[in-house]
Design brief:
473 residues; 0% strand; globular
């Protein structure tokens, strides 16, 4: 059930109707949305519902035990149950087969050729997101940063809430659980903001991400030899626009849908292509993942408090795992290592130059840093998009061919890419003004605008279904 489908809009309307009809019904209201969220998930993989529900209930019991004990050793033992459970599930479904093949390949040079043990299991949609949320719940209870959920229904709602279930953003229990303590109230401004977010998210997905994907990016990566070096470069920039419009568009729809329930979800993007360094890029891109690994990995490893060498190691490991989180393949291993090395080198060169923190750069240097960071992002994503190392090698080979024709880049692709990137670099105030003007309109006018937009999107939408990129993670 894709966000950019009529099925989702109908499902959302029914879920909202039940939520608001049961606004004063307490636990019945939560149960209704949990059931609706299970239906939403079952549209993809009904056989993995038990995985989500079972692991969530175990974490609820674990957190109760952590909270009930004062002895730190006992509390750590209970926390280890959650860590083993959640990382075990993630590792088994996402990384087991890759690890088994890697071990088998590593033994070949010494004359051993064992057949890899493979599960061949279908990756549960959203497992990388909901396992992190469930794990953070137990960790935060252990750290006494959040109180345990009052009932298993509250935790089930937190984990399964359908707008964020399959592709984030990754919510924190301390942010979402307290929102369940109060009965929802209709807030006209929040509803209007939610509708605006949904509309902008759908425009990003249909007009920009899907169009560029179908008309250029997929073709370039499926058959690189059919394109010139210049066309491959445009395809790489196209993928850079596609992945941003696709993922940030999904997040917009998720946050907008949640607002209609009176629930606030965290932002996930802050104009990442305006970043002036690889480190800043990861502070702006998929922010809920970056901050999650910062708080639950980088800081526990010691952060920057154990000396420069340990800081570089902690930083490298954190960024490497951000890359590896995206997939179990050698392309993502190298992608993660490349990103981590770039972030570490940036920190090292910053220390060497000795420039005081907060010192503004001249405009030309700011522009140069943004452009340089952008090139690194664009070309490193060959590894992100390629199906295999061989596919990545084919792309690189075509880049080295020196051919320059752009005949296969359609005028529509040029237009969409020009508008898409231009919007990313417009002043923030323009977007804020658009949102404020929409929110200020009478409800009837908002409805007319949304209806016209819906019709336009139906006309523009591709006949080819283009799933959200981050569903695979």
């Amino acid at each position: 059930m894709l966000f950019n489908s009529l099925d989702y809009l109908l499902f959302l309307a029914l879920a909202l109707a039940g939520w608001w009809l049961l606004a004063r019904a307490g636990w019945v209201r939560l149960l209704f949305v949990i059931v609706a969220s299970c239906v939403f998930y079952a549209a993809w993989q009904p056989w993995y519902l038990g995985l989500i529900l079972g692991s969530t209930l175990i974490d609820w019991l674990v957190a109760k035990q952590i909270h009930a004990h004062e002895d730190d050793t006992t509390r750590k033992r209970w926390l280890s149950v959650s860590v083993v459970l959640n990382l075990g599930l993630l590792g088994t479904f996402k990384y087991f087969d890759f690890g088994s093949r890697a071990i088998s390949d590593a033994l070949a040079p010494i004359g051993l050729y064992p057949d890899p043990v493979l599960l061949n299991a279908i990756l549960p949609v959203g497992i990388s997101f909901y396992t992190f949320e469930s794990l953070s719940y137990c960790i935060d209870v252990y750290r006494r940063k959040t109180a345990p959920a009052k009932s298993p229904l509250e935790l089930l709602f937190f984990i399964t809430f359908f707008p964020k279930l399959v592709a984030g953003p990754i919510a924190r229990p301390a942010d979402l659980l307290p929102q369940l303590d109060r009965a929802p109230r209709v807030d006209v401004a929040r509803v209007s903001n939610g509708l605006f977010l949904i509309a902008t998210g759908l425009v990003k997905k249909v007009v920009f991400a899907d169009y560029v994907s179908v008309n250029l990016v997929d073709r370039v990566f499926d058959n690189p030899d059919a394109f010139t070096a210049a066309e491959v470069v445009i395809g790489l920039y196209g993928f850079t626009l596609q992945i941003y419009a696709d993922f940030s568009g999904y997040t917009d729809v998720a946050r907008g849908s949640a607002k209609l329930f009176g629930i606030e979800l965290p932002e996930n993007f802050d104009r990442p292509y305006q970043a002036k360094s690889p480190a800043e890029f990861w502070r702006r891109w998929h922010m809920t993942l970056s901050t999650w690994l910062r708080d639950y990995l980088y800081f526990p490893l010691g952060g920057s408090k154990l000396g420069e060498r340990r800081t570089y190691l902690n930083l490298w490991l954190t960024i490497f795992l951000i890359g590896l989180w995206h997939g179990a393949a050698w392309t993502f291993v190298i992608y993660g290592a490349l990103q981590a090395t770039a972030v570490v080198l940036h920190r090292l060169t910053t220390r060497v130059t000795g420039k005081p923190a907060g010192t503004p750069d001249p405009l030309w240097l700011t522009a140069l840093k943004i452009a340089g960071t952008m090139q690194f992002v664009v070309f490193s994503r060959i590894l992100f998009r390629a199906e295999s190392l061989d596919n990545a090698g084919e792309i690189v080979s075509r880049l080295g061919s020196g051919t320059s024709s752009l005949a296969q880049v359609a005028p529509g692709v040029w237009l969409v890419m020009l508008v898409g990137f231009a919007m990313h670099y417009t002043p923030r105030a323009w977007y804020a003004t658009m949102r404020e003007r929409f929110v200020a309109l009478p409800a009837v006018a908002q409805g007319v605008l949304l209806a016209v937009l819906a019709g336009a999107l139906l006309e523009l939408s591709s006949t080819q279904v283009v799933p959200y990129i981050y569903f695979q993670f």
